[in-house]
Amino acid sequence: MPWPSWVPLGLAAILAQAVLAAPAPAAAAAQAAGAALDPAHSSVGWQSPVYAKGTGGGTESCPGAAADPDNKVCDRFDLTVSVPDGYWDDNPEGGVPLSIKWEKPSDDFDLYVYDDHGKQVASSAGTADPEATVIPRASGTYHVLVVPYDVHDNSFTGTAYLPATTDAGDLTSFSGGDGSYTIGAGSLTARADFLTGGQLRLQADPSGSLSDPAGTAIVRRQPALQRHTSSFDAGDYYGIRSSEAVLRVYKKPLRFGLYRPDNRTRIWQEDKPLRWSTGGMRQSLERGADEQFFGGGEQNGSFSHRGQTMYVANSFDWNEGGYNNSQPFYLSSAGYGVFRNTFAPGVYTFGSPVTTGQQERRLDAYYFLGDAKHVIGAYTKLAGRPFMPPVYGLEPGDSDCYLHNANRGERHTLDALKIADGYTENQMPLGWMLVNDGYGCGYENLAQTAQGLQDHHAQLGLWTQDGIEKLADQVKAGQRVAKLDVAWVGNGYKFALDACDAAKAGIEDNSDARGFVWLPVSWAGAQRCGVLWSGDQKLSWDYIRWQIPTYAGATMSGIAYNTGDVGSIYRHDAKMYARDLQWKAFLPAIMTMDGWASDLTTGKPADQQPWRDGEPYTTINRKYLQLKERLLPYMYTLSAEAAKTGVGAVRPLWLEYPEDAGTLGAQAKYEFLSGPDFLVAPVYQDSDTRDGIYLPKGTWTDYWTGRTYQGPTTLNGYHAPLDTLPLFVREGAIVPMWPKGTTSWQTRDRHELDWDVYPSAHGTSRYTLYEDDGVTRDFAKGAAATQRVSVHAGAGATTVSVGASNGDYTGKADARSYRFTVHGDTAPGHVFLDGRQLPDSAWSFDSDSQVTTIRTPSLPLGRGFTLRLT
Description:
By secondary structure, the protein is mainly β.
């Protein structure tokens, strides 16, 4: 939800709440309004005046320097940095750490840094004490502006320092066994722990002792040691061998390398020893000739990072280049991934060499071996699997402030039910509503509102600005969705993760429901408790474009639920809204944010429900929302898969086709797979034509026309009028769907299930449907059912085998009928059900779409059946 309007966007620096924890040189207080950092002056500090009260605003509330010569309103300080060329090239901190710590931690100062051209280069504008940032690759004069936003007779001390660096020296000790080995290099102590599941934990600390500040906050349970290891002396290095890998410990200087069990095939290799600085540590690795890199959590606008610098921190930059939901994890195509067990920000540069560093003087890294899906699974097993959402969480959500809304006039909480009426009247699905979405927006008549929404088959959600202490009573009154925001999750990191865990527990401890939490700022582990959304943006075609790789890329870090406001939050345009909604219908979670937008053309307030723009937009939006609803059995099964494996539904093409170089091309960047079967190529320009649609190897069917394409190929000039999302289905897909016209999981026909089938010309394709009650946590106790389906296309016949539904849950039907849509070139002559020919009235063939539609009678779920088209 909106960060206050005074916070600037486009922050380019790491917001580091951990900087002051690092050992820094003693800072001599600077009496003048400026100071220098150079080889002769390694640190500087200054003391602000005492501010009786805050500005209540951001930088716009500060008068010019000439009008505020004594810094009585806002504090100004000039910092000149003079360092030799190349000073920052291999510096773990990458720039000058700058922080302010105020006398009374309950108050709020905000920090901004500008270069000599007036460009903002760093900022920290959250609620943490201290406020801290880094001036990246600092050189020249910088102008520091500190805004006393919310203070009461308070002052602060500012500090900055020039990070000095030290490299690990020669090996001085090596010992250990049974899976754990201790290594020394002068003052540096390191430990290598081989863990069950083929994992390696490598720690290093120049203090001589190994600390663990993250504790159990991210890794709740440490894997057991894999004790079947051995060591050997190879002359230049010691080797530690496990069944999965060999770790080389080089002697002069100390360096590490991880190899396959043959001890010849490199997985990763340090090209230089560990380097630490005043407040950071980096690892430097050789880069493979074709090695690719993914991960980093939510990296707005990208999913593949070779040749790029990736920031892992909280930037409060909601736009392209931002990273407010980043994670200290990356995955390499060389067959490994690494998670830094830390709450410190980091900078990862995937050049040659690859340098990865965190802002703390320690290394604590878990390495996982295997292909991409295996690595994602191992990482999420360690930090937390994606949570299993309630089924209504996969339906659209709606958010607004209904009590005394300054943007929309006097209203009351029960007015939310009028919006729910609109969804019902327009036959548009609605799974949940936030009824107090806005800073300072409260609520009234909570239980009555919750009941009214339930009458519309929707659940009550509430947004929290500053805490979750009321959650228990709210849940008892009917709340089932919790949305956290920047004022609550603060600068992210551990604070955000703890809030996410606590909010999920608050729902589950006070009801039988599954916790369903949204948050805009997070850290590693948040996938276990919340939906991450990419913050508050203004609408543009670029806004649509850069979100596509953002959400696909987040899956590479085990984030299964990542999304953005449909049509953005601050501006509205009917055409862009429709285009944005189309492709977001293929994300697991979506939400429309109302009450904040103005029309792109007129500038007047604009509501954003999907029927507001009239025709043809209402019909188009209904088409995609109902399609999303029909596909919920498919998406819900993908959610169950994510909870089991860590791999979410929204995937870059590379994840399914890693041997295809085309999946890393510029064209494939702006499309994604929804599960393994749907290829979605959103239209992100004001055009009815989509160029550069890349289709990987195999046969792909146009969802709308039935036309087939042979990949790999690139489609240009694809006709995509406003009602058409370029959408293709993989050969071999077996897609479960609810009946046409379904608008709610509660009102669906439980006695019918549809199957959309795309037989493969080669071999047999298989699918396993997952079902449970959709809302309670009984699934965790085994209350669920699965049903296996296989399709085989042979000479002259296509056979669909549907197994019995195995398992039980509350509300499970005893029998249901089926509607099959089977894609193929020609009409069948006959259709048989368990060997008995179906009458012609039970099936039909559409020659335009080349689809055979078959309806079965009601069949018991306790036994399987076979459908044969000859």
